[in-house]
Amino acid sequence: MIDLKQSPFDHFHRLMKEAVEKQVPEANAMSLATVGAEGMPSVRIVYLKEISQEGFVFFGNYKSHKGLDIEDNPNVCLNFHWPVLWQQIRITGTAKKISSAESDAYFKTRARLSQIGAWASNQSEEIPNHDYLTRRVQEFEKQFDGQEVPRPPHWGGWRVEPFEIEFWFGLTGRLHERYIYQRDGKGWKTFMRSP
Fold this sequence. Notes:
Elements: H1 8-21, E1 29-35, E2 41-47, E3 50-52, E4 55-61, H2 65-72, E5 75-82, E6 87-97, H3 100-107, H4 112-120, H5 130-143, E7 155-169, E8 177-184, E9 187-193
Antiparallel strand pairs: 1-2, 1-5, 3-4, 4-7, 5-6, 6-7, 7-8, 8-9
Helix pairs in contact: 4-5
């Protein structure tokens, strides 16, 4: 199912295109696993917003649980799981903040309420109730009334620069196919793993 002579990014684009064409719900949703300073793992769903030869980009609050974990330990793992296709892609790598200009450009494409929400929500912090969040949204709507909403300084993107990419294809009898790309200098070492 995978020609290991080809680029892993070519395979990723092909499989993502297939997932979108087959109408896999939220095909760009991926699990993001982090490990904080205390050594405790944490996982949540984020959305892939960009891919290039440099890596995989997602966005969020730099002061959130994930943001603080990444600040302490930039080693992360991403996982796309498309059960209807019997496919997974796992990406292990290092998360690094993208440039302010890149974050600004993406922020401008977000819906206005999402832009306001980035200001109103102190992501991952305890709040008394949902009304508190609603009031904060109203406050920032008033503050930015009639003007473009700027990107908050605590919000932006990370790029996961991969050092391993695994393409997993489920087969009957649990005799799955696992194709591995490991960073080897400027190229990739390729092999298969036993299921």
